[in-house]
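Subject: sequence -> structure tokens, single chain

Hey, anyone have a minute? Need the predicted structure for the following. Not urgent.
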Amino acid sequence: MTCIDIVSDLVCPWCYIGLRRLDAAIAEVRRERPDFVCEKRWRPFFLNPDTPPEGEPYLPFLEKKFGGPAPVAALFERVRAAGRPWGVDYAFEKIEVRANTLQAHRLIHWAQQRGDAARLVERLFVAQFQRGERIGDPDLLAQVAVECGYPGDEVAAYLSSGRDVDTVRGMEAEVRRAGIRQVPTFIVDGREIVVGAEDPAVLAAAIRRTLD
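Reply:
Had a minute. Here:
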């Protein structure tokens, strides 16, 4: 089985596009090799580790980072244009808060221990970029998890605890020690590394190299 580590942060719009492109690459490889099997492993990354737990106002953060309203508007348009072919319709105007994603990464880590977390990750991206929901809010995270089929009482108990906080932070630190500074980053079987939301052809080629 091929293992694909996906290093991403849920507040990164390119990570959402990158996930769609990865899925297209996997489908391409499967058309060539029907017996191809892969496992996705989600690895946390904090784009802005200093974001307060309650988050911070979205547009002011971006305008400070990129130099004002005009560069942010241009960025939004570039991302929207990139997302459309992949069925991703960004609604940046709905986002009020730039979330601290520690709790969301904890939830993904918890879900991975129980099987494939892909549905949860997809739904969290939808919450962030299409619905403008506050993905740093434990109540919202619990709601999303229940929608994905996880037991509500277990999710609530986990999110209200401090379990895995140090584990998730340690995983993120390990990623940075490995030299990863940009997301998304895809690591195929620990050998092939693709940095950025590359086209499916690039990702498929990386997968093939691990199979040859």
